[in-house]
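user: can you give me the structure for this one chain? tokens are fine.
assistant: on it. calling the predictor now.
[tool input]
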Amino acid sequence: NLRPGIKLLEDRPGTGPAVERQRTYVMRFRIRLSRGDIVRFSGAQNNEDDGFHTLAATVNRESLIGGIFQTIDGMKVGGFRKVMISPHLAYGEFGVPGTIPPNARLTVEIEILHPG
């Protein structure tokens, strides 16, 4: 069960081992703002025109925003989830200047590809 502030829109469980906290995984993700605009981040590998990014990240609260950390909890390698994340579990009242506006509700699609 996902915590309040995260709405599960799609869930494909995956067949690999369970994702473990404090381990690094290669993830493929796409983030959209509520009006549908795709968020593009510097530092992530932008190898696809459809807005998906590939990134190696450690599953902990320091590396991931709260909503993504909570979304990954309980996933397995190969799994995919699409969720809507409320602002308080995303970038909150400050947003990310020039990228994500303040108090933005985000739609996140995330796939765990393999351990990193």
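assistant: here you go. The CA atoms of residues 15 and 106 lie 27 Å apart. The first strand starts at residue 6 and ends at 12.
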